[in-house]
Amino acid sequence: MSLDWVYWAISWILLMWHSAWDAIGVPVGAVLGTNWAWILSIIFLVVTLRVILFPVFVKQIKSQRAMQALQPKVKELQEKHKGDRETLQKEMMELYRKEKANPLMGCLPMFLQIPVFLGLFHVLRRLDPAKQAKELYGWSTEQFDSAATAKLFTAPIAGKFGSTADELARLGANGTTVKIIAGLLVLIMIATTYLTSRQMILKTGWAEDPQQRMIQKLMLYGIPASLLVSGAIFPIGVIIYWVTNNLFTLGQQQWVLRKFPPPPVLGKDGKPIPAPARKTAQPAKPGLFGRSKPTAEQPQTAATTEGKALAPKPGAKPVNPKKSRPAKRQG
């Protein structure tokens, strides 16, 4: 399947944003070793995509909520069909179909972004000044040359951590600088990828379904670990896109999770566990030497009140009931 339409779409969005920043007055030349018009074009490629995918992202959150609400029923099926994996899978798929919950919806936004990532990867890889076909995908020769020499702190956005000496020479780049900038961006990419998955899991909780839990672990640990190796072949511009996308996701998830809070905790019977009443007796607070002191909200028992009434007053001599004798009889 040809992805030319993706390459054309990515190129069009990048060129549109670059023209917009140029019209606003963002310098086309390098400032602090950075061509900000092209860097902002990559950043706002992310913004454009996330605005388009926002309805899908909301559906993802709602689907995850539906999956959480089904956890008690999933547990029942797991206990009912222990050892019969095939029947368990059929019953669970029937449950999902009946309740209109889609286990794959949690990964849908990520899958939809894969073509965009591959498209940007392809477009930036062809930003080689030695190439003859500079007008491909709607680029003019001037735009191509401008993007091919665009830099982030003197490191070209088409360069990568694993760039060969020949590639660096064609881009006019310093190998040490490219490795430092690319390496730092890869570490930030790994950290933000982990944080986006961790934020979602902490808010929604670990799934009871083994397949869902496996997907959660893959997203939390597997993908960040794979980036440690694959990040070496990503152009700096692609890593900028990935980091920006992760930061956007962190903010978007925080907003959506507040808008659609997690469902209440369910008991074994599948019913919500009511929140404890606020005006309940508080446990005694430890005082000096570990002794407990009743709080203002803790009612004093009758034994405690009686004990206080019978306690000797300060300064009085202690009374020993064993040594007390009966009064002598008179006459």
Describe this structure in words.
The strands form 2 sheets. A two-stranded antiparallel ribbon has the order 1-2. Helices cover 60% and strands 2% of the residues. It has helices spanning 4-24, 36-69, 71-80, 85-99, 108-125, 141-148, 165-171, 175-204, 210-230, 236-259, 302-310, and strands at 151-152, 155-156, 285-286, 292-293. The protein is an all-alpha fold.
Radius of gyration: 33 Å
SS-based class? mainly alpha
Which range best describes the helical content: under 10%, 10-25%, 25-40%, 40-55%, 55-70% or over 70%?
A: 55-70%
Envelope shape: elongated
Q: Which spans of ≥5 residues are poorly predicted at pLDDT below 50?
A: 275-309
Most strands sheet: 2 strands, antiparallel
Average pLDDT for all residues: 79
Strand order of the largest sheet: 1-2
Order of helices and strands: HHHHHHEEHHHHEEH
End-to-end Cα distance, whole Å, is 126 Å
Number of strands: 4
* Count, helices: 11
- The proportion of strand residues reads under 5%
Brief account:
By secondary structure, this protein is mainly alpha-helical.
Helix-strand layout with pairing:
Layout: H1 4-24, H2 36-69, H3 71-80, H4 85-99, H5 108-125, H6 141-148, E1 151-152, E2 155-156, H7 165-171, H8 175-204, H9 210-230, H10 236-259, E3 285-286, E4 292-293, H11 302-310
Antiparallel strand pairs: 1-2, 3-4
Helix pairs in contact: 1-2, 1-5, 2-5, 2-10, 3-4, 5-10, 8-9, 8-10
Supply database-style keywords:
331 residues; mainly alpha; 2% strand; 4 strands; two-stranded antiparallel sheet; single chain
